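Task: sequence design from structure.
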C-alpha cells in the first residue's frame, strides 16, 4: 500500500474538503438510540454481571441498597464494515497494483469514519476471512488498521458466498458495508453474496477496482494471459481473439454494475491509475445525489 507521511495530510484534506459534501453520509456526531459508555450521561440502570465496576454509581447504590450503573448515550453512531478482497487477482497492475488502490480506499474510509465518531472495522478475505478487525472508534484501532493495510499481501482464490453469508448473519445491527474487490472471479456468486447484506437492510457500497490494462487491452501481437488466482496461462495469437476478450470483459463488468444498481446498491468503478483523492471526492458527490 502506498502510505507514506503525505497520506495522513491527504486524508486530513479529504476530511476537511468532504465535510460539506458528506454530511449525513456516515452519520457521525449525533445521538444514537444505541447505548454504550461515552461522555454523555443518559440514565441509571441496575447492575448486570460483567458490567465494569468503574461505572457503578456508589451514591445511588447506597441510597437504594441495590447496585446501579450509569448508562451513557453512545456517541459512536454507525459501524462501518470494510470488506477487502486480498485474493491473488488483486496483485495485478502496473505501476500500481489493484491491492494498493483498494487499500488506500480502505484507509480513507477508516479515517473519515473515525473522524466522524463512527466505528470502522476491517475484514480481509480470499478463500476465507484472513484478517478480522471488528469495528472500534479508537486511535489505536485506526493505527492497527493502517498497519494491517500496509503489510497486506494478496493470497489465494476468491470464495465470497460462504464468507459473506456468514458475515451477514453475524452482523446484527444495521450499518454501512463497504465491499472492495476486482470481482473478476465468480461475479454471479459475488452478486448473490452482496445481496445478503442488502437483505439485512445495511447500506451497501461497492468499489470495483480494475487496472487500466484490463480495460484497454490492445493487440500487440501474440500474448500470454495469466489467471492470477488459478495460476493458469492462456496463449492468444490472433487480433480477433483479443478484441473478443476485450468486448466480453467490458460486457461482464457493465452487467455486474447494472445488476447492482437494479438492487439499489451503490457502485463505484475505480481504475488504478486514477488520482485516489479525486476518485473519493467524485464518489461523495455522486453519493449525495443518490441519497437524495
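Answer:
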Amino acid at each position: 500500500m502506498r502510505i507514506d507521511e503525505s497520506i495522513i495530510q491527504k486524508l486530513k484534506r479529504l476530511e476537511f474538503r468532504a465535510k460539506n459534501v458528506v454530511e449525513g453520509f456516515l452519520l457521525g456526531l449525533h445521538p444514537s438510540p444505541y447505548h454504550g459508555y461515552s461522555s454523555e450521561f443518559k440514565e441509571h440502570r441496575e447492575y448486570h454481571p460483567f458490567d465494569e465496576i468503574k461505572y457503578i454509581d456508589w451514591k445511588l447504590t447506597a441510597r437504594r441498597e441495590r447496585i446501579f450503573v450509569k448508562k451513557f448515550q453512545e456517541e459512536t453512531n454507525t459501524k462501518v464494515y470494510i470488506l477487502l478482497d486480498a485474493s491473488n487477482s488483486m496483485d495485478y497492475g502496473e505501476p500500481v497494483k489493484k491491492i494498493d488502490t483498494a487499500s488506500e480506499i480502505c484507509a480513507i474510509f477508516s479515517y473519515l469514519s473515525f473522524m466522524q465518531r463512527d466505528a470502522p472495522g476491517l475484514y480481509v478475505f480470499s478463500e476465507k476471512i484472513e484478517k478480522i478487525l471488528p469495528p472500534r472508534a479508537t486511535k489505536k484501532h485506526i493505527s492497527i488498521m493502517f498497519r494491517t493495510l500496509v503489510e497486506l499481501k494478496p493470497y489465494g482464490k476468491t470464495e465470497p458466498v460462504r464468507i459473506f453469508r456468514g458475515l451477514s448473519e453475524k452482523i446484527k445491527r444495521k450499518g454501512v458495508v463497504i465491499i472492495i474487490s476486482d470481482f473478476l472471479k465468480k461475479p454471479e456468486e459475488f452478486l448473490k453474496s452482496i445481496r445478503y447484506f442488502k437483505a439485512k437492510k445495511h447500506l451497501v457500497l461497492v468499489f470495483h477496482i480494475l487496472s487500466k490494462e484490463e480495460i484497454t487491452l490492445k493487440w500487440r501481437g501474440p500474448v500470454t494471459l495469466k489467471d492470477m488466482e488459478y495460476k493458469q496461462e492462456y496463449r492468444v495469437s490472433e487480433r480477433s481473439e483479443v478484441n473478443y476478450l476485450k468486448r466480453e470483459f467490458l460486457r461482464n463488468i457493465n452487467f455486474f454494475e447494472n445488476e447492482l444498481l437494479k438492487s439499489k446498491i451503490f457502485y463505484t468503478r475505480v481504475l488504478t491509475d486514477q488520482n485516489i483523492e479525486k476518485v473519493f471526492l467524485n464518489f461523495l458527490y455522486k453519493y449525495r445525489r443518490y441519497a437524495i
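The longest strand covers residues 203-210.
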